[in-house]
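User: For my dataset I need records formatted as: sequence, then C-alpha cells, nothing else. Please produce one.
Assistant:
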Amino acid sequence: MSTAYTLTALASTHRTNPTVHSGLHYLLGEQNPDGGYTSPSDQAAPRPLRYTIPVLTDIFVLLALTHYA
C-alpha cells in the first residue's frame, strides 16, 4: 500500500521519473493471479488494534494506476 500511496502522489506530475516507473512495475509484478493484491494487516492508533480489509489494498493500487494512466 505504501507504493500505491507514493505512486498516487507522484504519477500525474512525474510520469517520466524512473522512481515512478519502478513503483508502477513493482505494483504490476505483485498482482495476484486473480487480479487482486495481498498486503499485511494494518493497525489503528493509539492502541495497536490490528485489522484486515482485503479489498483495501486493491482499492489503493487501482487508484494509483488510475493516476498514472
